[in-house]
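Aggregate trends can hide what the representation actually does to any particular protein. In the encoding step, the backbone of a single protein was reduced to a row of integers, each denoting a local shape. The record that follows shows the chain in one-letter code together with its fold in token form.

***
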Amino acid sequence: MLGPVILAASRSDRMRRLISAAPVTKQVVDRFIPGETVADIVPIIEDLTARGLELTMDVVGEDITTPEQATHARDAYLALIDHLKELQLGERVEMSVKLSMFGQALEGGHELALANVRPVVEAAAAIGTTVTLDAEDHTTLDSMFAIHEELRKDFPQTGCVIQAYLFRTEADARRLAESGSRVRLVKGAYKEPAEVAYQQKHEIDKAYVRVLKTLMEGEGYPMIGSHDPRLIAIGQELARQAGRKLDEYEFQMLYGIRSDEHLRLAAEGHRMRVYTAYGTDWYGYFMRRLAEKPANLRFFLRSMVSKG
């Protein structure tokens, strides 16, 4: 399996330098990350929302090594919110944040991440939108869920992400499937050991369906994060069985992947939210996109050969 190899490469400084220096890299990165600044991304937001889509915005960057970098990350999100306020799009454009970007891995990181993310959540609420806390590797999740619980005391619309490949996720889903909760379910995109996570695709897919059924039968708001046509169809059927209306759940997919499907679901009346990343520190995000799906890796390799 190439996925774990690619995920290991995402932590390699040597591979970062090699891939960043490849002439074709920017062309391929642009498929997944359509801009480096807020100014770059505003036309994308306007275009996608005009097409009937919703968005969740991610300022890329996770390898934080100082409190100053974490503060800079916070300020980048606050600047994004200032621009979203001008666009007056309300909940149609929310934000996704990785707590590692807010200093979670530093000394005193739990408190630091909470202190940095709270102003972002407050500012988002002030313009009528919200924030979803992305899930990262399994060692960070207890901290993430604790911060999520703390933020929901004042901002109950704050969302979180759970990952189907982790053994713990079925229990997490039962706990989170309560009234007012917003939970995005994804398969998972980190290299996790066999002691904590399913390793085979068929096992992960089965776990995904079990967890999604729990969320659909619960009282919260499920967000189906998948590009898999079979899981999308299963999600629609589970929603039907649970008696959910079209505005009581949503689909989420990554910018640059299955864009026609984004529009098809929106045209059918589904809420379809596009996970749209931007920024200069793109390497980790880009490598996980390659690891998640063989077609992404093939696209990159073909581009390198054709441009080499």
In short: Residues 66 and 106 are 7 Å apart (CA to CA). The radius of gyration is 18 Å. DSSP finds 13 helices and eight strands in the chain.
